[in-house]
Amino acid sequence: MAWEERERAKARVADQQSDRTAENREWIATKESAKGFFFCLAVLCLAGGAAWFGYVQIFTKGLERLPAKVCDGAVDRDVVIRALPKTRSAEEGATRQGAGEDLHFSCQVYTSGEPFLTGWVDVQRSSLQDWLRYYGADVGDDAVRVSVDGIEALAKLDAAGGISSVYIPCAPKGVQADESSGPYAIIAEASVIATEEDAGAAVRQAVTDFAYQLAERSYELAECQAPRGFPEELPRYKNG
């Protein structure tokens, strides 16, 4: 009898050990399965993040890859970024012709899509009143205007596809400031062609800033006779 009891006890111990072994195997399998799941999840997250980063860098950072100063160093890249929508690629170029009263300076920024930004500057015989009459008739009554230290700027209210202009009095090199033909001025004009959803006050302000920085550089290129300082930026449009 004692021998049989010992055998039965050994059998019970063996059964308990077998149960514990099975439980351990199940726990290990569950743990390995969870590790595999989280590993796959981490790989998918990394792959998704890499894909998103690649998309952003390839398809939306075209403007950020332009030089820090565009238009032969006349305009800050940030102004262009504010004026145009995100794009895969962008190119810019400037042209300068003539000098003094014959100066013509222009710049264009093209994107891989439809939108593009363009601006030009001329030295012209024009009084402030002449300029206001011309652009006032051109943009209509829905224009906004700012001025500081004799520098004037205006823009159309819905000027995502409209125009902005800047006026700065200037007697260029070789021209008498009091000639009977009238006063001279640096006149800049800039416009952006964009989609309707890219329209708005921020775009209008950026286009004016683009024209202003082109005009500031042209004041130097035309060798305007009266030295003057330029504010870092024009006053902001009150409604934009």
Observed structural traits:
240 residues; 9 strands; 41% helix; globular
Tell me the strand percentage band. Answer: 15-25%
Please state how the strands of the largest beta sheet are arranged side by side.
Answer: 3-4-5-9-8-7-6
Principal-axis shape: globular
Determine the N-to-C terminus distance. 102 Å
- What is Rg? 35 Å
Low-confidence stretches: 49-59
Q: What is the number of helices?
A: 4
Instruction: Indicate the mean pLDDT.
Output: 78
Order of helices and strands: HEEHEEEHEEEEH
> How many strands appear in the DSSP assignment?
9
Q: Structural class, from helix and strand content?
A: alpha+beta
The helical percent reads 40-55%
Q: Summarize the main sheet.
A: 7 strands, antiparallel
Describe the fold and architecture.
It contains four helices and nine strands. It is an alpha+beta fold. Strands 3-4-5-9-8-7-6 form a seven-stranded antiparallel beta sheet, sandwiched between helices. 30% of the residues are buried. Mean pLDDT is 78; it is low at 49-59.
Topology:
Blueprint: H1 2-59, E1 69-70, E2 75-76, H2 77-83, E3 90-97, E4 104-111, E5 116-125, H3 128-139, E6 143-148, E7 151-156, E8 163-169, E9 184-193, H4 201-221
Antiparallel strand pairs: 1-2, 3-4, 4-5, 5-9, 6-7, 7-8, 8-9
Helix pairs in contact: 2-4
Give a concise summary.
The protein has helices at 2-59, 77-83, 128-139, 201-221; strands spanning 69-70, 75-76, 90-97, 104-111, 116-125, 143-148, 151-156, 163-169, 184-193. It has 240 residues and is of the alpha+beta class.
